[in-house]
Write a structure and sequence with these properties.
single chain, 32% strand, seven-stranded parallel sheet, mainly beta, 1 helix, UDP N-Acetylglucosamine Acyltransferase, domain 1
Amino acid sequence: MSRWRRLLLVRRLRAVARRDRRRLRELARLHPGLDVHPDAAAAFAVATFDLEPGAKVRIGPGVVTERRPDGVRISVRSGGELDIGEGTWLRSDLGPVILSVFEGARIDIGRDSFLNGCHISAKAGVTIGREAWIGPGSRVWDADQHAIDFDTPERRQPVRIGHYVWIAADVTVLRGVEIGDGSVVGTRTLVTQSLPAGSLAYGVPAVVRGRVGDRRGIPI
């Protein structure tokens, strides 16, 4: 690529970024509870935000995503809160990242985490530690999603995913589960019970089958 073409491309990209920043400011005016840090990716301008009055969303500094329309879908009901920690990557090229917070619930995502085409839903609360990875097609649900029948109401229990945890692809984590720091959960696992720190677990349902060493600072 010639120097002139590179310069033209840079100018176009800067123009797109300026438009995206203006769009984010417009979104913040429409939704007073939306707080996108100036150092977060301008690409959040093409994300889908469905925010009810009283919803709060904080996207911290250095949070990044691809510029894909509908690649990130954020839905927060009245009284719900979503906090995405510094340096987190919401990767959307393998599938959308869907973050759903129901009335009065909360999702907290720790700094430097990596959410890759996954779905997180909170009706009570979901806490994800720092440097946690959640792979494509995986789901974290803190509720049954629906009542089974008139005599069996929906049950809700908070979910906690610890620091440095790796949840691989197509994993389902159900209500009330705690996954201890540094654990690894294998592909297509169903997690119905809590896992101690440093677990290597997989299966339907998940069974601890080994131990995991220090995962702190492992590059994505």
